[in-house]
Amino acid sequence: MPDHETTLARTIATARSQTVGDLLRRSAQRFPERLAIADAERRLTYREFDAVVNRVANALIARGIGKGDAVALLSRNSSQYAVLTLALARVGALLVPINFMLGAEEIAYILRHSRARVFVAQDGLLTVANAAVEAGEHRPEVLVRIGGTAPDERWSAYEAWEAHTDDSDPGVPVGDDEPIRLMYTSGTESRPKGVLLSSKSLISQYVSAVVDGGMSGDDIEVHALPLYHCAQMDCFLLPDIYLGASSIILSGPDPATVLATIERERATKFFAPPTVWIALLQSPRFAETDLSSLTKGYYGASPMPVAVLEQIRTALPGLSLWNFYGQTEMSPVATILRPHEQLAHAGSAGRPALHVETIIVDDEDNPLPPGELGEIVHRSPHATLGYLDDEAKTAEAFRNGWFHSGDLGIMSEDGYLSVVDRKKDMIKTGGENVASREVEEALYTVTGVAEAAVFGTPHPTWIEAVTAVIVAQDGHELTEERVIDELRPRLAGFKLPKRIVFTDELPKNPSGKILKRELRQRFAEHAH
Q1: Pairing between β-strand 118-122 and β-strand 142-146 as defined by DSSP bridges
Q2: Could you give the CA distance from residue 521 to residue 527 in angstroms, rounded to a whole number?
Q3: Can you give the pTM of this predicted structure?
Q4: Are 177 and 95 in contact (CB under 8 A)?
Q5: Span 341-361, pLDDT tens digits
Q6: Which of 111, 250, 257, 362 shows the smallest number of beta carbons within 10 Å?
Q7: pLDDT per residue over 408-422, tens digit each?
Q8: Domains, the chain, ranges and CATH?
């Protein structure tokens, strides 16, 4: 191609650009003085937010950090997290969010596998960050610390990036299908997989979330779940920025803080998994908090137990609820259950989102008719570009032109998806299959049950035994006999737990998802 044609093609590509890095600039032009983000330390209008993102982007360029460079970020929620996410997108670098609950060896693996050139860590996490750097075979070239006042010659100050003098747009050409994010799945395997996402994947998902999730630029949203997880970041924070909505960022989902923030900010919108919604309902401050502004609620990670759904509808009659189902590889939304469908299709994951096709297939990838159990597969521009350095797993996930979710589900005649279980979570007991979610749903109807987790544990006779771990509501005394008596009318005999364990709390990750792997290990001996 002649040089002038190449130059013209680049010029046209610049004019047609639609990347994650472009979204904030457009919102800043439309709503310059509207509140964009706030945390405990500062409040930024869209004009101010855009300027600080540009300063950080230009500081990255000045440091020689740009397209294709992996930048690992280990931090709790903050406005800086949002700034870095967009600054890296503007220069075409790969953001690698790291779960702040991981240990040093696990972080070291991510640094090595991603070939992170830069490692940014929050001051309060420097102990594990330093241990990860020392433990790994790969040492990032640039170490940057967010916050803190004690001098540390190994870690330069992130604040210097925000203080950079140039707040003009960096003007780096970034293709809409070039990778800008590398997300590590929690997975069941010995090592997590690196999921590559592009602006095309992400923005396609933002549109689906906005349209089917009833989102608006007038929203004021409280973000309390971890931003390292794509649910909070990509279903809510970045779509809010895309729309020009206002985002209040909290360091975590402490119920008292969440409730006080919703009341103070007159927030209209909040997302959390069912475990956090349960904690809000049970908070002693719930009844005394003015939540009348809250009109949009979202949940995910697991279905909302019907009993809890009824509690929410009674306690918050002005709240509309959505259920988002998906996974990291889908950026992450795949299906959505909308407010008017919550009771009629309770427990359902809803129907495919705007930009998604979803079907159920058998083990040979043949499409299954409605009502039959099989694997959930998708076609969508939401889908990942693939797994970093793992062509075999990428090919397996995308075999026959569908992305294979690894979830088992059933599609109804009218197109509603029921996610029965992860393949790994299906309990095989005495030759029968038991879906742990079905047993959990029944347990939530038992008087006095606050939380429950069901999983299979090894058994010499049954191969696997249905095991339940239960947290009782305050003021309720539960016994194994009473729980089983209440379950009998609802479950077949082979689905009844063979062992029930009562505990004060269930282990959860920072996103509020119950850690069944930990429970399986902890209670394996109880099923014998």
Answers
A1: parallel
A2: 11
A3: 0.84
A4: no
A5: 999 999 899 999 999 999 999
A6: 362
A7: 899 999 999 998 876
A8: 43-197 (3.40.50.980), 430-527 (3.30.300.30)
